[in-house]
Amino acid sequence: MLRSLPIAWRITLLVLLGAGVVLGIVSVVSYTSARDLLEQEKQAEFAAVSEATAARIDVVGRSVEKVTEGLAVTVDDTEPSPARARKLLRGTVRANDELYAAGIGYEPRLYDNFAPYAYEPGGQYGDASAGDEESSARIVVTDLGRDGRAYEVNDWYQLSVQMRRPVWTEPFYQEGGGEVVLATYAVPVRLRDDPVPVSAVVAGDISLFWMRRLLQDIDLGESGYAFLISKTGTFIAHPDPTFIMNESVFSVAASREDSGLRAIGQKMIAGESGYVAFDGLRSMKRDEPSWLAYQPVPSTGWSLGIVVADSEISSDVVALNRTQWVIALAGIAALLVITLLIAGSITRPIRGLDAATHSLAQGDLDAPLPKAKGRDEIARLTTSFSQMRDDLLQHIDELRESTAAQERMHSELRIAAGIQMDLVPRTFPPFPERHDLDLFATLVPAREVGGDFYDFVEIDGDRLCLAVADVSGKGVPAALMMAVGRSFLRSLVREGGSPAEVVCSLNDELAAENEASMFITMFLAFVDLRTGEVRYASAGHNPPFHVTAGGAARQVPRVRGIALGARQGMLYDEGSFTLAPGDVLFLYTDGVSEAMDAEDKMFTEPRIGEELGAAVVGGSGGADAGGVSCEAVVERLLAAVRLHADGVEQFDDVTMLAFRYLGPDGEDSTGGAATG
Amino acid sequence: MRRAVLICAAVLCAAAALGAGLWAGARSADAAVPASRVRLVLQWSPQAQFAGYYAALEQGFYRERGLDVEIIPGGPAVDSLAYLADGKAEFATAFLTGAITAAGGGAEIVDVCQVVNRSNLLLSAHRDKVKDRDDLDRARVTLWGSSFQSAYIGFFETAGVKPRILPQYYSVNLFLLGGADACAAMEYNEYETIVQSGVDPDELTVFSMQKNGFGFPEDGVYTTARNAWRDPELCRAFAEATLEGWAYCRDHPDEALASVMGHARDAHVPTNSVHQRWMLDHILTAIYPAGTDAWEPGVLSRVDYERTRAVMIGEGLIGSAPSYDDFVLEGARSAP
């Protein structure tokens, strides 16, 4: 997907991704470290607050313990009468603000169910309905054993009696109902002459009302609150009044099926202190994640808990983090714009290049390329690309030119070939009325016209002129030269003269105007058809073969003479020999003797001789040798040459001319198939 | 099996309701007197142990039978059977052993309706002190007053142990503070209180009196022999309405729980719904038989009565006690 996006966007996205990851890591690290710091701070703060508060509660507990123990000592020492006991209690309650009430529970048999009890009703929390009271100011004194009431069944009496030591009771509702929750510190006393182990219990009551007030007054922030639990986990103070005395940490835990909370409660009632995360304790249901600092109240065995919502602790961190995020997001936005601009400017030449190459690919080579700026990779790329385009253009021009030239050359060659082929006689048999000779010639032009030609013409009724020539050079010039040479030859032959004279004259004519310095080699022979005598001249040409009717082939003797057109005034010798009837004269150009095979081996003149010997007698050397036509001989030679070349293209024209003399009357035994 | 029992109970209830309705109609038409005003005193403060009585009152099952019932909450200062003797109430709930003790002491009371037929008494011990019943020998054990001790004494004798018995009143705090090694506990009440005070069940060794062969029927509704003789139909009506109330609690536990919590709140009884829910669930299993339980709700079987009385006399807790037929009102008696 990313790869289909423009480069500028990819760069931008990758930069943003990288920056985002770094930023994210930094944020997380700073958030967690800030959070840790803050939590540690809060924890210390909580610990301090809970310690201080627990200490304040403990101080009250301790003072109640001291007062009660003092009272017990007094009771033990003085063994007060019932009247004195009432007075003692009233005085003790009046003198000690933290003491809500004080009482003495005598062993029921001692004073006939007597338990004097002095308390300070204190406004709405008082119990004015109690009978048998002796009111004095705000202090009420009563007898808990009045009317046979069983006071010894209460915890404050039983626990201290059974355990034989001072003990704090579980908080309880003040007798007679109401909202006053009390806890009693009970001290067992053994009076001097009493046979039972404990003869009285001295009790000091503390009201838990002020404790709630104390906890409410602690500043614990918006979400914070404090609670106090007894030794059995029962709530003594809690923001929800219905929790007090009703619910315990363990009932809440059971209701929530929260074993973690139960474990916390067990640690609390075991007198431990700690700081833990939990689900809050504001209601029966799990509320928001919170932190609890708990601290024991050693004197009473209670445990104080202070709770603050996790969100409040986190709020500072969150605020800090929010700022961080705002800055980070703004930074990322800025980074987005800047990266886009930079990436855009970097890729602009690439985009230009892209558009230009697109036009280029469409064939518009003249489309303008962006200008290379600077010396960076893109500038170099642009320069290279521009150069490549220029090279391409030049190459195309050259190609066009060379193609045109080739076209031209091809047409020239066609013309040349046309000229060449038009100039050689191609009608066979050339002299159908004559029965004293057989003649066949062929010219196979090379791809680039070589400039060979052959000719034969009747000089008069008895003589025949045969010529084979090879113009040096190729193409049209060679063809033109050939045309010129042939024209001169024909006219000179008609003017009369011996072959040497004709050749000599021809040389002079050609050399006179030969600015191109082209040459012609030529073999020229005049055959006297009456006698079979052949007179000939050669202008640097390969000597032809004389093949007897029996198949013996030999080259005619060489005669002096150089190629035509080099220099005027050259002399040419003339040779002669006689053809017996049935003999064959075979003229050719070097295109035959020098025909190349794939391994650059030439066909060679001896090979021509061999092939001719075989051809003239009829291939297999049979008795009917004289019956082989000249056309067949030529075709055989041509086939041999082609076989030799085996498909290798030849650079020179292949020209052959075969002439068979049949005798003056054509009545030669071999003449029957002369026109075959 | 259980379903069959439930269906039978439902049919019985329906039949009872029908009969009671006819009876009430006949009564009001016949006598043209206003509904009979009766007072029921409970043996303890409001809690789920009494959910059925509250339900019978609030759902109008008493009123349907021509009974205008006032429920008097009990508590530490209330001796329910004494209320009967003093004429402060016409009906009282009481523990069977407590009622037999009172009867043995001369109180002329009769069992109108035996509500709880299975024992809920446990002995709960600190496991670190008591691992098995042999460890109870010389252990400090707190027990409620004499009328509750019969099962425990039988259990101790059978086990051959001699614990040091300390008095137990209204709390298990002595046990919780470590002042006692074991304490008496109702399965539906104190046991859960102990657990709700942070003591894990695996820290406790628990002996069930029922499982140890000393399971006696518990809560029943009593009236004086005089009341029963004067108006046995009213007594039957009261018993039927009470059982209908309990059936209602069984079928509507949430409603019953809410009612109990309301009564506890009104009486300033410190408690919570977790505890009351536990209590309701457990008391219902002690009222309605399940599995191999053979009792019939509302009926005190002769066998159970004779067995309980024999154990109490054998332990010397009482000298004598009334016969089954004298002690149990017709209608609450089992088939002979």
Folded structure, characterized:
The complex is a heterodimer of chains A (676) and B (336). With 676 residues, chain A is of the alpha+beta class. In chain A, a hairpin with a 7-residue loop joins strand 5 and strand 6. The C terminus of chain A is likely disordered. Chain A starts with 6 loop residues before the first helix and ends in a 15-residue tail after the last strand. The longest helix of chain A is centred in the first third of the chain and has 72 residues. In chain A, strands 1, 2, 3, 4, 5, 6 and 7 form a seven-stranded antiparallel beta sheet that branches. Helices cover 43% and strands 19% of the residues of chain A. Chain B has 336 residues and is an alpha/beta fold. Chain B has two domains: 199 residues, Periplasmic binding protein-like II (D-Maltodextrin-Binding Protein, domain 2, 3-Layer(aba) Sandwich), CATH 3.40.190; 88 residues, Periplasmic binding protein-like II (D-Maltodextrin-Binding Protein, domain 2, 3-Layer(aba) Sandwich), CATH 3.40.190. Chain B is built from 14 helices and ten strands. In chain B, the strands form two sheets. In chain B, strands 2-1-3-10-4 form a five-stranded mixed beta sheet. The radius of gyration of chain B is 20 Å and the shape is globular. Chain B starts with a helix and ends in a 9-residue tail after the last helix. Chains A and B meet through helix 3, helix 5 and helix 6 of A and helix 7 and helix 12 of B.
